[in-house]
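Dear colleague,

Thank you for sharing your sequence with our group. We've completed the structure prediction you requested, and as agreed, I am returning the results in plain text so they can be pasted directly into your records. Please verify that the sequence below matches your submission; if there's any discrepancy, let me know and we will rerun it promptly.
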Amino acid sequence: MTETVRYMERTRDYYRALGYPSDYVWARFEAVPFANLAKPLSQSRIGLVTTASPPDLGNRDASGRRQVWSGEISAAPDRLFTDNLAWDKESTHTDDRASFLPIEAVQHWADEGVVGGLAHRFHGVPTEYSQRKTTELDAPQVLARLRADGADVALLSPL
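Please find the predicted structure tokens below.
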């Protein structure tokens, strides 16, 4: 028998237990900034985006705030840093990098002709609880990096 996980209710309860004075407010977008593919997926280069941090936490600015970061696919670390993020650490783990940075899976799809290829870099976006920072700072940086890499499609792999 499958039990329903009430994610929204569970998240509200979690933040209340942490002592936050008001409930978390989820971002809403009336207009979604997605676009149709300009060419078939089999001809499209895929850019990977994750919410994990680099293993050395080197994605911080002078004030200590996390920033967008990038890494080479060919030199991707075996592990990324995830301990600073909120996830159910009793029920699962993040030892399987491929679950949130699926380099090998996309390379396999490219070998099979499902996708046109994989961009040479992957990108990390910090999980900030600021819709403003995400939309005004992080998203434009990631888009610029994906375009610089010649990516046609972004595969988002949140943790």
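Summary note from our side: The chain has a mean pLDDT of 86.

Kind regards,
the structure core
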